[in-house]
Design goal:
Layout (H helix, E strand, L loop, with lengths): L8 H25 L8 H11 L6 H28 L3 H24 L9 H24 L10 H9 L11 H24 L4 H17 L37
Helix pairs in contact: 1-5, 1-7, 1-8, 2-3, 3-4, 3-5, 4-5, 4-8, 6-7
Protein name: DUF1275 domain-containing protein
Organism: Streptomyces liangshanensis
Keywords: Membrane, Transmembrane, Transmembrane helix
Length: 258
């Protein structure tokens, strides 16, 4: 069961589109700056891993892909644990998850400014790949539990398929074309902006990604109302004691119901 957002539909969609821009930024950074590896698009890493395992394949490609996959899985696991503990309180859950992602992005930004992630295949590059993939895995796990249709912030394959297959031209109802097009545009804009900033100043990409993520976290933190308590599957809801209080008479004595 999807966890309800503490924001209304439009602010929630805007927040997830901002996170989609973040995905474009960090994947452009990792692919162009850390040595042909993705930190959010895991399908690409699986393909790179398979290509690198061929006889005479590039061992650096294998190592980078395994590092990215491992970091992503750890981040996804962490996101799942956070959701299992806090998803009955949607606002704190989202703030904790996104603040953690912001901190990880900020840490890699510091490594980049210090020149620790400049050389593909170096220890700094592998550390950056692992940390960025961890942040992406955390984001993906969180967005998955939030369950907003057509906005998973990292993979566009199903979005593109849905856009065409569900269109009136494809014989479908034409549902949510704006949301799907927005997701595609956000990813494209993030990747283009990331590549442009890399050409100008490699140290500017990750601070921007961290700032966008922090802005989304702040938006959820300042949301004007608290969503009703709905746990993720397998998580017991926290009982509201007010619903189980025994009624009392005007004198303050428990009412017997007679």
């Amino acid at each position: 069961m999807a966890v309800p957002s503490p924001l209304d539909t439009r602010p929630t969609v805007a927040a997830l589109l901002a996170l989609t821009v973040v995905t474009g930024l960090v994947d452009a950074f990792s692919y162009l700056h850390l040595g042909h590896v993705f930190v959010a698009f895991m399908t690409g890493n699986v393909i790179f891993l398979g290509a690198g395992l061929r006889p005479g394949g590039a061992h650096l490609l294998v190592a980078a892909s395994v590092t990215g996959l491992s970091g992503f899985l750890l981040g996804s696991l962490t996101g799942g644990r956070i959701a299992a503990r806090l998803s009955h309180r949607p606002r704190p859950w989202l703030v904790v998850a996104l603040a953690t992602e912001t901190a990880v992005l900020g840490l890699v930004a510091v490594l980049t400014v210090g020149g620790k992630a400049a050389e593909p295949g170096g220890h700094g590059a592998y550390a950056s790949i692992a940390l960025l993939a961890l942040a992406a895995g955390l984001q993906n796990s969180t967005v998955r539990h939030l369950g907003v249709p057509d906005l998973n912030t990292s993979v566009l394959t199903l979005t593109l398929a849905g856009l065409t297959a569900d269109s009136t031209l494809g014989g479908g109802p034409g549902a949510r074309p704006a949301r799907r097009l927005g997701s595609i545009a956000a990813m494209l804009a993030g990747a283009a902006l990331g590549a442009t900033l890399l050409a100008l100043s490699p140290t500017a990409v990750l601070p921007l990604a961290a700032t966008l993520t922090a802005t989304v976290a702040t938006t959820f933190a300042l949301s004007g109302h608290r969503a009703r308590d709905v746990p993720v599957p397998g998580h017991a809801p926290v009982p509201d004691r007010r619903l189980h209080r025994r009624p009392v008479t005007p004198s303050g004595r428990p009412w017997s119901g007679r």
